C-alpha cells in the first residue's frame, strides 16, 4: 500500500472536476519507494516516500 513508514503519508481523497463541471471522486497516492535502510545498525527494507528520502530522514544501506 502507498504509505510511508517514516512520516505516515498516505493516500488522500478529493473531487475531480471535469471541463463540463461533472464531479467524481479521485484518489491521490503518495510517491513511495521500497528502500533498504540502516536502522539501529541493522539493514531493513522499508516503504519510504521520496520526500523523506530527499530530506535525509533515513540512512540508505
UniProtKB/TrEMBL annotation:
PANTHER family: 50S RIBOSOMAL PROTEIN L28 (PTHR39080), LARGE RIBOSOMAL SUBUNIT PROTEIN BL28A (PTHR39080:SF1). Keywords: Ribonucleoprotein, Ribosomal protein. Belongs to the bacterial ribosomal protein bL28 family. InterPro entries: Bacterial_rp_bL28 (IPR050096), Ribosomal_bL28 (IPR026569), Ribosomal_bL28/bL31-like_sf (IPR034704), Ribosomal_bL28_bact-type (IPR001383), Ribosomal_bL28_sf (IPR037147). It comes from the Bacteria. NCBIfam families: L28. GO terms for cellular component: ribonucleoprotein complex; ribosome. GO terms for biological process: translation. The keyword Transit peptide does not apply. GO terms for molecular function: structural constituent of ribosome. The keyword Aminoacyl-tRNA synthetase does not apply. This is Large ribosomal subunit protein bL28. Transmembrane segments: none annotated.
